[in-house]
Amino acid sequence: MMAGGSMDYQDKKYCLLDDKKLEAEKILYYRTVDSTSLAIHRNAALSENYYTVVAEEQNKGRGRRGRDWFSPPGCGLWFSILLKPSMLKPENAQAITLITGAVIANHLNEKYEISSTIKWPNDLILNGKKLGGILTEMKGYQTKIDYIVAGIGLNVNQKPADFPELLKPLATSLFIETGRLFDRTELLISIRKALLKAYEIFYRQGFAPFHNLWLELNETTGKIITLIWSGKSLTGKVIDLSENGSLVVEDEHGFIHNVNYGEIKN
Ligand code: BTN
C-alpha cells in the first residue's frame, strides 16, 4: 500500500488489467474515470451496441439509490456495457438488471465452483455478504428506449483491510471467500461474453429462458421478506418473478403483490 491508503500498482497482488487484451476485445480501458457508466452516457449517441468501458479505479462510482460505489484501483471489476435494444419496450428493461445478476452469479458458480447468489433486484451475494451490484440506467421515452447502460461492480481481489470500516461487515470479495487471486482481465472478458450471449437470447425469447435460473439463484425465493419503499413496507413470501421482472410477493392475507421497486430489509 502507498501512503494515503491507495494501492501500490507495483504490488504483484494487485496487478493491473491487461490493456492489450482489453483492446483486442474492443473494451475501452481507463486507469481512472469518474464512473464507467457516466463515460458510456457521454459517448452513447456515437457508440455501438455493447460498447464496454472498464476502469481500474472510479472516483465517482455510483451505486443504486444515489449511493456511492467504493471502487478502489487494482482489485475489483468496475465496468459498464451500452445496450441499444431496438425492439425492447421500456417496461421490460428492468429484466436487464435481473438477467445481468443471474448470468454473472451462474458464470462464477460454474467456472469457479463457488455458491454465489443474487438478491432482488441488483445484489450479487457470496456467503451472506455483498460481492457486487448492478446499476442499470435507461435513457429514452415512455414508449421507446434510446439506450440502456448496465453498470457492474464486482469485488474480486480485495483483502478485508481493503474495505472501509463501514463496509467490512457487509461486503466481501472473491479472494476473501476463496483464498484465490483472480485474473481480472480474463474474468471480465468471460463475464462480458456470457452477458452478451444472454442479452441476445433475451431480445429473441424474452425473460422465459432465465426465469428458473433467476428463481434458483435468488436468495429470497420461497422466504418471508419485508420490502421497504417510500416510507411504506410490505411483508410476505416471495413466490415468483413476473414476466417483466417484478418480484411476486404473497402477503399474510393471501393477496399477491407485483413489486417493482424498493429494498429487501431482511
Ligand atoms: C449497487 O449495488 O448499488 C450497484 C453498484 C454498481 C456499481 C457499478 S461499478 C461500474 C458502474 N459504474 C458506476 O458508477 N456504477 C456501476
How would you describe the overall organization of this protein?
This protein has 266 residues and is an alpha+beta fold. Helices cover 26% and strands 30% of the residues. It contains 6 helices and 12 strands. The strands form 2 sheets. Strands 1-2-3-7-6-5-4 form a 7-stranded mixed beta sheet, with helices on both faces. Strands 11-10-9-8-12 form a 5-stranded antiparallel beta sheet. A hairpin with a 4-residue loop joins strand 10 and strand 11. It is globular, with a radius of gyration of 18 Å. Residues 1-7 have low confidence and may be disordered. The structure holds biotin.
What labels describe this entry?
266 residues, alpha+beta, 7-stranded mixed beta sheet, 5-stranded antiparallel beta sheet, globular, binds biotin
Strand content bin = 25-35%
Proportion of helical residues: 25-40%
What is the element string, with H for helices and E for strands?
Answer: HEHEEHEEEEHHHEEEEE
* Overall mean pLDDT: 92
Q: Low-confidence parts lasting 5 or more residues at pLDDT below 50?
A: 1-7
Distance from N terminus to C terminus (CA atoms, Å) equals: 36 Å
Radius of gyration: 18 Å
Shape: globular
- Give, in spatial order, the strands making up the sheet with the most strands: 1-2-3-7-6-5-4
User: Major β-sheet, in short?
Assistant: 7 strands, mixed
Q: Please tally the helical runs, counting DSSP H or I stretches of 4 or more residues.
A: 6
Number of strands: 12
Any ligands, ions or cofactors bound here, and which?
A: biotin
Give the class from helix and strand content and strand pairing. alpha+beta
